[in-house]
Each structure stands twice: as C-alpha cells, then as structure tokens.
Amino acid sequence: MELFFDLVFTVAVAGSSTGLFTVESAGQMPRAVLAYTMVFFTIWWAWVNFTWFASAFDTDDWLYRLTTIVQMGGALIIAAGAGPAMAHLDFDLVTKGYVLMRIAMVAQWCRAAVDTQAYRGVAWRWAGGIAIVQLAWVARMWWAPDTWRLGTFGALVVCELAIPVIAQWRRHIPWHPRHIAERYGLFTLIVLGESILASASAVIDAYGSSTDPPQLLTMAASGLVIAAAMWWVYFARPMHQHMATLGSAFVFGYLHYVIFGAAGAFSAGIEVMVHQVAGTGPLSASVAPATVTVPVAVFCLGVWWLALRPTLPVWGNALVCALIGIVAASAWLGVGILPAAVVMTALVIVLEAFPHGHTVAAY
Q1: How many CB atoms lie within 10 A of CB 128?
Q2: Residue 334 backbone class (left: φ over 0; alpha: ψ -120 to 50; beta: rest)
C-alpha cells in the first residue's frame, strides 16, 4: 500500500517538475523557483504526514485503505493543477487537491484517537490542528485578494509546519526509525527514477532532430552518471540512526523537503539541457546547465548535513563541501553538465574512501 501510495505521488512530483521545466524554458527563473517550491510543498507535506502516521497506526484494513486511496486522488488533482500553478500562480486546483488529502488525514487521525487510548490526546490535537488549517486554506482560495496570495500561502505553510510541534508537545506518536528511513529512501529512488525516465524520453524525442547527436548523447550519459551519483550519495550512510529523538526526527523529516525538491528539480534541469543541446532552448550556455548543477548541489548538501557530516572528519567534511560547491559552480564553465558528472564521481570516490560505520563528529 505504501509503495502504491508513493507511485501515485510521483505523478504529482512529475507534474511539478514538468511545470518547472516549462517556466525555466521561458527564461523566468525567479518565478520558476518560487512556484515550484510552493507546489512541491503541498506534495511533500501530504506525503510526510501520511508516512509518519502509517509508521505508527497502519491497520491495513478496508477503511484505512479507502482513506489512503482518497489521498492518492488528491495527489492526482495536485498533478493536474501543477501546470496552472507554475505558469500563472493559480493555486485553486492545487489547493483543492491538497485539502482533499488533508481532510482524509483528519479522518485517519480521528480514527486513531478513538481506537488508541494511549495516544488519544495527541491524535485529537493532530486532527484538530489539520482541520483548522484546512479551513484557512479554503478561505484563502475563496476570499483572499490576489495581492495577499503569496503572503497568506507563506503564513499557512508556517501553520502547517507548526502542527506536529504543537500536537506532540507533551507526547509524541511512536515511529520505527528503520521503517521511516526505508520509506524516505524508497521515495528518493522513485523520484530519481522519474528523473531518468523523463530525461530519457526527452533525449529520445530530440535525437532525430538534433544538429549534434554526439553532444546530446554526451549530455544524456552525464545525466545518468549524475543521477547514479545522487543515489550513491544518498545511500552512502545509514539514515535511521538520525531519528533517535523527537528533535532529530523533525530535522530528518523537514530537511527532506530540500532533498526531495532538489531531486525533482534535477529532472526539469535535464529536460532544459536536452532542449538546449537540440538548439531549441532560450537560456544561455551557463544558465541552462545551472538548472541541473544547482539542484544536484542542493541535494548533496542536504544529504551531507543530515547523514554524511557526522561520519566524516573535519577535513573530510571540508573536502566534500568543496566538491559540492564545484558541482554548483561548474555550470558557469559553459560546457554543459559533463564537468558536474566528473565531480560527482569524485565525490562518490571520496565518500567510499572513508569508513562507513564510525561516527567521528557530533550530530
């Protein structure tokens, strides 16, 4: 059920990545970044809430499955609304899909409150907090003036992020660190796989009309190397040991917004590069590669802070950060993404040179 849930949510991630590619291809980079971070938040936050709930209260009966499928339907509505949201900042359809997912989550929390006496209080706080904020999302969609749309969106994001903190102030729900780490790892795999699929499809479509097929193939091979290196970096160290306390669990969960978002943006960047190599992209020779190298660097930086940093000596951390910085800056060499692929390979070699199981720095 969880894997099915992830696959449906990947459709929403793909929709947001496609919208990011469309706006990036038009040369509207600030607008692209803003809209993408907003759309991706709705996808990520709904996925995160379900994942942690499932780790504690997954009964896998017919009612649990039904409410989960309702959330999948909301994710597909978000996927349908990603295009207008990215192009025109029209979040009405995205909001409807998001509220549908969250209302289904309220039903699951209410059921947990009724059925589990030990966690009744925290479950009711979860349900009440989510329900109140959803009313605010609906009010924003219907009555907020256009000039208030961005400000109210940011305020409601803060409210959403505050719900787990407030709900678990006195008692937190149980979770299984290895299960949570596995779930996050599987979603990372699916997002990276979607990136490879999208880039492969774009390369295949562009190959026949490309004026420089060897350059297109070099770009495609570089994209595959970068995706493989991102996978390697993410799974270079165990993740479950970084959820020992409630505070570290919050860091783990919230930081993955950056990691997942960057992985999705990498897919859009590859498509931008395909069109650039094919001669149909409007971006400059330095800006186009940055749509790949900057998300890759952000992804690696998030993983480093979360899982790699505690296992490396000071000079090892400095070397890893330097390589990540070079990945981001390699776009401005104006020679595509091949240098980034080379540096990512070097990063993997550096990580493999250090022991995996010994923590040498304080978390």
Answers
A1: 17
A2: left
**Does residue 78 belong to any structural domain of this protein?**
yes
Alpha-carbon separation of residue 146 from 71, 95, 150, 162, 231 (angstroms): 28, 15, 8, 25, 40
Q: How far is CA 329 from CA 156, 168, 226, 243, 325, in A?
A: 34, 41, 15, 33, 6
d(CA 338, CA 87): 30
Show Cβ contacts of residue 326 under 8 Å, excluding neighbours closer than 6 positions.
343
Start-to-end CA distance of the chain, whole Å, equals 33
Q: Where are the alpha helices (DSSP H) in the chain?
A: 2-25, 29-57, 62-88, 92-115, 120-143, 149-167, 177-207, 213-234, 246-277, 287-303, 314-329, 338-353
Please give the Cα distance from 347 to 362 (Å, whole number): 22
pLDDT level of residue 361 (50, 70, 90 thresholds): very low
User: Which pLDDT band, with edges at 50, 70 and 90, does 240 fall under?
Assistant: confident
Q: For residue 166, how many other CB atoms are within 10 A of its CB?
A: 12
| Closest by CA position to 324, among listed 185, 219, 193, 229 | 229
Residues 6 or more apart in contact with residue 4 via CB below 8 angstroms: 72
Q: Is residue 15 located within the same domain as residue 39?
A: yes
Distances (CA, A) of 72 to 101, 157, 185, 251: 7, 21, 20, 26
pTM of this structure: 0.90
- What is the per-residue pLDDT across 69-123, written as a single tens digit (0 to 9) for each? 999 999 999 989 988 888 888 899 999 999 999 999 999 999 999 998 889 999 9
- Tell me the CATH number at 329: 1.20.1410
56 and 8 in a single domain? The answer is yes
Nearest 5°: CA angle at 79, between 129 and 270?
Answer: 120
Residues 80 and 130 in one domain: yes
Max CA pair span of the chain: 67
Please give the distance of CA 304 from its chain centroid, rounded to a whole number: 16
Do 275 and 143 lie in a common domain? Answer: no
- Whether residue 208 sits in one domain with residue 126: no
